[in-house]
Amino acid sequence: MEFSDAIQLLVIGISQGCGYALIAIGFVFIYRATEIVNFAHGELMMLGAFMVLTFSEIWGLGFWLGSALGILSLGVFGYLLDAVVMRRLVGQAQATIFILTVAIAMMLRALAGMIWGWSPLTLSVPFMRDVNIGGVVIGLDRITIILGTIVISLLLYVFFSRTRTGLAIQAASQNQLAAYYSRIPVKRLIAVVWAIGAMVAAVAGIMMAPVTQVDTGMSIFGIKALAGAVVGGFGSIPGAFLGCLIIGIAEPFLDFYFPAFKGTYAYIIMLAVLFIRPEGLISQTFQKKV
After folding, report:
1. pTM
2. Tens-place pLDDT, residues 87-96
């Protein structure tokens, strides 16, 4: 492998890891607020990409307006998903919630196939060209994923650490009963968390669409993002980023040298880490504050 090839694979890996990390953020946010692992989160990313494609391509509203409407529509869907469905399962067994989220994932995938078809579709984006950096040709879509992930992460950090709503969400996620007695609208804020997770998943779908095209199979990225979150330490946002970056960077190199196991390395890495460190690379200790 030449040096330029290694740099290209490294950029591809970092961009993949960033895409996984955006999806993993939603997993972690929802888990920390509700202790629910939403196995349909990859399908939310897929649905977001299809909604953006509908607004921008089919309805002809253009990429930027279509993206904004697609992200907002996913936010509304995530809010209603919690308010109408998930809220009714509070106090139920984890097995029940697991089965429900898996069922929702299967229904969303089937619904997307019936509406948009099962063949891959192309989403036209303004960052579909190659740039030459020091003799290394890198896709602008890959650079956009990396920069977009950094921007979204900073915006989320400011929201959760500097706004009243963000601080209230943190309080509700640490102790819902204490937050309720402090007159914090816990139910509404949890629905907001679902909405934020769905919108971030939609952004991930937009960024990953030029790489994979838009089809029902792109929801597999949700499972790889979940593997990254487990590698980093489920419940830890920095851990989710670290785990997703490790998987994202390792995949293209392992696929290049060992193509026989292509597509499975995210799960192999997850199993290896769990054997060595079951709590993940960055264990998360929850400290309840009342």
Report:
1. 0.89
2. 888 777 888 8
